[in-house]
Amino acid sequence: MNSIWQSNKRQKIVFTQHVSLLIVLCMLVPGIACLQEKTTENGTQFRKHIIHPGFVSEGVAIADVNKDGKTDILAGVYWFEAPSWKQHRIHADTLDPVPGYSTSFINFALDVNNDGWIDLIRFDQPGGVCMWYENPKNEEGLWKGKVVLQTAGIESPALADIDLDGKMDIVCNDITAKQVIWLKSPVTATDSLWQRFVISRDPQRATHQYTHGLGWGDVNKDGRNDIIIKSGWWESPASVKEEDWKFHEANLGEDCANMFVVDADKDGDQDILSSSAHNYGIWWHEQSGEKWIRHDISKLFSQSHALQMEDINGDKIPDLITGKRYFAHNGKDPGAFEPSVLYWFEFIPGKKPVWIPHLIDDNSGIGNNFVVKDMNNDGWPDIITSNKKGVFLFEQVRN
After folding, report:
1. Which of 47, 96, 134, 331 is deepest in the core (most CB within 10 A)?
2. Percent of the chain scored above 70 by pLDDT?
């Protein structure tokens, strides 16, 4: 089980329940690889790397920041340089103006200004400012920050290619205008304008700063991706720049996080996956004509404030990855003091779909967004998270 990060000269430590001294060392030394390798029934195994032991962000992103061919990690005010995970400051914004909450709620990596260098997009607390920070191209100093939207709401804003031009855009709400919008990212190197398009002007629908639940997928199988919230979905028009999309009422459950469209039961129509942001529950909602029927996937843990779907085990079927957002409401949510777990659920679609839970870790969890991508080019997706427990990389390893 060779690791691309073996060039990290810090000592690697086997993380066991019985060696308390080693546990302390792992927590004190950022970037150390704690070999807490959990093997599931099908042989899938993860190696835990503690990139930073402190609270720096509820969101995380990955990219080759310095163009050295290695994938780095961005979280809050820092980026961590692979393979040693050396810490670099990105900006000087205050991390924690309200005790227990970060001003880095969501992080995305994108070449915003089309100069060939990856920049950082940071969402403040819901209703706060969305900024992007320009990569200084390996020059010393802080990254220059620019405003994307002054009052950006929805707790799980989306990064998606809305207009299919090959570049990612943003979906969120504007709590001042009381609108749900998408923001088209700049298209040329001299362009810094985020063009704004209104999806909905209904002031009562998904315009609160703490709106929970947002998804992007083709609900009606017309070949165009739609915008999904817990009370229904906006049907994408032929031109996504057209404003005031048609809304379809639907009961898609409780306050949730990311929402995914998938034909879970293989009956030919689309179903929707979601999870409880602050309570117990991961669900799939079966589309049955005009009705939606909720089915439980799991209630193993609470506060699953972010979801991802990626093929973990190489069977060509996207699995579900999530975990607990540690102390999302600072101990006030149900199950808040239970272990901060990270799971992947092996998905077996069919008439009666099955999601088999596999525990990855019980002392980390997730934040408001996390990443599932192959970090070391070995062909297997890894998992990168950031929350009040720290910043973590779970490297998938294979015999």
Report:
1. 47
2. 88
